[in-house]
Design brief:
Length: 429
């Protein structure tokens, strides 16, 4: 079933009119269910205590989940074409829920990696990329804001379920908590899918006023092959990889930084975990909406500059309580904003029609970034040098963000200038 959008009549075709804010509601419900996977760290110690596994070995599960999430986005667009969006989201929700329910029965790390890692991550990534891309298509004139709402709901699901899953683990233990968690997530995602309707792009959607000429290049609806023939795709990948690696690395070790570098006690440093979730969610909503008004690459450039400053401060400046929390909040805020604005950038640069597939390719920067920070830290032997590497990558990406323009824009501008120069002067007549 398709629906019409009065504000974008040339971009979406559907036979039945409906309130597109119901689609927003459905997407929020789905994304909140998907975002609950970011509560995984709550299970590390309880599972270690129950089975005698090393905590670091249990924690690998979430790295597998993150990688599988990103990997799934490469295939989600094709699955959507075959099954339709509603059906795909429902199947993904069922698979994700069953993956968690079955995880309650595992007695080996291998099964945990397969079920809670790969199966859950793949299902999560499939529903994440398709529901997000679909919502952006419904609101072509507010891509940044809508992306912020959708990705913000993902973060909100993580924040709320920190309390839900903590309560479940305390009441019934980690194994049973997996079962109840899986059931709740399955219900959320399947229920939300009933409010979602698939948008079909016929022509290029109207561009925002602030992007104007920059988005003229996106009138061509790029396929994945066409996108990969542009240098801009690789520049965006590098920027996105840098943004993801910096945020994900800090989120993974924030408590350890507080203890080892700022000299905080464990309980105080643990407060940074909740603060990361709050500022991460705030960055998604605020910077997403701001990108519609001031331009997306300006927001990205500003976020990279702030991130570089924060990690250099963490590495080189003696840390007090206030400085530590300010730097952590800044990185979390910018990371949330970066991953929110990027879906809209890909739509601006390469068109809306193949958004799920195109963004799925760029999104691999998330999966690689999830692993890269830990590998670099292990190679260099600690936080300090890793933060310096991140700052250097942010500086390089900042330059790319300031230089990059949509594919073909410079060529089109030169053609327009040539045409203007060939026009006879009105005074000559």
């Amino acid at each position: 079933m398709k629906a019409a959008i009065s504000s974008a009549p040339n971009s979406i075709s559907t036979p039945i009119k409906m309130n597109r804010w119901l689609i927003v509601l459905g997407t929020i419900i789905v994304q909140m269910g998907l975002g609950t996977i970011y509560t995984w760290s709550l299970f590390n110690q309880p599972l270690s205590d129950r089975f005698g596994w090393d905590v670091s070995s249990v924690a690998i599960t979430f790295s597998i989940t993150s990688f599988a999430l990103a990997f799934a986005t490469l295939f989600a667009g094709r699955l959507q074409e075959r099954w339709g969006l509603q059906r795909l989201i429902r199947i993904a929700g069922i698979v994700l829920g069953l993956g968690l329910v079955l995880s309650s029965q595992v007695t080996s790390l291998t099964l945990l990696y397969i079920l809670a890692g790969f199966v859950v991550g793949f299902a999560d990534g499939t529903a994440y990329i398709t529901s997000l891309s679909n919502l952006i298509k419904w609101f072509p004139e507010r891509k940044g804001l809508i992306s912020g709402i959708s990705v913000g709901a993902f973060g909100t699901g993580s924040l709320l379920f920190k309390y839900v899953n903590s309560a479940l683990i305390g009441a019934v233990g980690p194994a049973q908590a997996f079962m109840y968690w899986g059931i709740i997530v399955l219900i959320l995602i399947v229920a939300g899918s009933f409010l979602i309707r698939e948008a079909v792009v016929r022509e290029q959607a109207p561009v925002s006023k602030t992007e104007g000429a920059k988005q003229e290049a996106a009138r061509h609806q790029y396929t994945v092959k066409e996108m990969l023939r542009t240098k801009e795709a690789y520049m965006l990948f590098v920027i996105f990889f840098t943004a993801c690696m910096s945020g994900l690395y800090l989120i993974g070790i924030v408590k350890d930084i507080g203890v080892q570098l700022a000299g905080l006690d464990v309980a105080t440093a643990a407060n940074a975990v909740a603060m990361v979730a709050i500022f991460n969610t705030a960055g998604r909503i605020i910077l997403g909406a701001l990108s519609d008004k001031v331009g997306r690459m300006k927001v990205i450039a500003g976020a990279l500059l702030v991130t570089a400053t924060a990690v250099m401060t963490l590495s080189l400046v003696p840390l007090s309580y206030g400085v530590f929390f300010a730097c952590v909040a800044a990185v979390a805020f910018c990371f949330g904003g970066n991953i929110t604005v990027f879906p809209a950038i890909v739509a601006d640069y390469f068109g809306l029609k193949n958004q799920s597939k195109n963004y799925g390719v760029i999104y691999q920067g998330f999966g690689i970034g999830a692993l890269a920070g830990s590998f670099i830290s292990a190679l260099l032997g600690g936080f300090h040098l890793t933060f310096i590497v991140i700052a250097i990558l942010c500086a390089v990406s900042l330059l790319l963000a300031l230089m990059i323009t949509p594919p073909g824009q410079n060529r089109r501008t030169r053609q327009q200038d040539r045409q203007m120069s060939l026009k006879p002067s009105s005074r000559a007549s």
